[in-house]
Design brief:
GO terms for molecular function: DNA-binding transcription factor activity; sequence-specific DNA binding. The protein is an alpha+beta fold and 266 residues long. The protein has 10 helices and 10 strands.
Length: 266
């Protein structure tokens, strides 16, 4: 296995919309990789080949929030750049709510970005730092004024702290049903599902750490009732238990443990 993975931060002006850049170049055995649910949308530009999904092949793509693993086929060589986008970033960069891409993937050209030109610019850049700087310029040029319901933005922030949905609804003065409908219209998933995804993401980050905790420790730290609850949730969201995922994929994704993104290639 030959894996190169380089992470970088976007320009400060972009960080409310893009949380991380990840450059990757890897040679592995051909197979199928799981793109895991997370709180980020995923923008990928390949430098070689394509990203092969059940619904198509893409040289450059943007994938929305999702609540189950996305299966990515590969021939053993992957080379490109991944950008982790916040939901607000969809409005700022592309003028649409994140909910429009929920559980789906589109080519970057469908969002009005000249993907062929962007891909060529990234290919001609000499270093990963140069490629990240190129993304700063291109994405920075897309930023537009953003309007979003403050109640749903507040709900997202409170979910990230682990607050229960009923408490959040009371804070914004809405019923749970109204909050759920407004929230899903903006993000594509209900508050309950997003809370579940965020908890899964926290557990996933713990398992990628330098000192891998026991599953019992992960379950307790992330708010699962017990290890059996952790296993059930992982099987629903990932398609495998934590033990199965570690055996199949952790060496493949090692190096991306600090990221927030959907972990498509990294």
């Amino acid at each position: 296995m030959d894996v190169e993975h380089v992470a970088g931060l976007p320009h400060p002006r972009l960080r409310p919309f893009v949380t991380r850049y990840s450059g990757y170049r890897m040679r592995t055995e051909p197979g199928v990789h799981r793109g895991l649910p997370s709180r980020s949308l995923t923008l990928v530009v390949t430098l070689d080949g394509t990203v092969d999904l059940p619904d198509g092949r893409f040289a450059a793509l943007c994938g929305g929030l999702h609540d189950e693993a996305v299966l990515i086929s590969h021939d053993g060589f992957q080379h490109g750049v991944q950008c982790d986008l916040t939901p607000l970033g969809m409005r700022a960069l592309f003028g649409v709510p994140a909910g429009e891409l929920s559980c789906t993937t589109v080519g970057l050209d469908a969002l009005g970005v000249p993907d062929v030109e962007l891909r060529e610019r990234l290919r001609t850049a000499v270093t990963w730092a140069d490629r990240f700087a190129c993304l700063d310029v291109v994405l920075g040029g897309l930023v537009r004024p953003v309007r979003q319901r403050p109640e749903v933005a507040w709900a997202w922030q409170r979910l990230a702290t682990g607050a229960p949905v009923g408490e959040i609804a009371a804070e914004v003065g809405w019923s749970r049903q109204h909050l759920s409908a407004r929230f899903a219209a903006e993000y594509g998933l209900t508050p309950k599902v997003v809370a579940r995804v965020m908890r899964f993401e926290r557990a996933n980050r713990m398992l990628r750490g330098e000192r891998r905790p026991t599953l019992t420790e992960v379950a307790a730290a992330c708010g699962y009732t017990d290890q059996a609850h952790l296993n059930r949730d992982w099987r629903a969201l990932c398609g495998a238990t934590p033990t199965e995922w570690i055996a199949a994929e952790l060496p493949f994704v090692q190096g991306g443990e600090h990221g927030q993104g959907a972990q498509w290639p990294s």
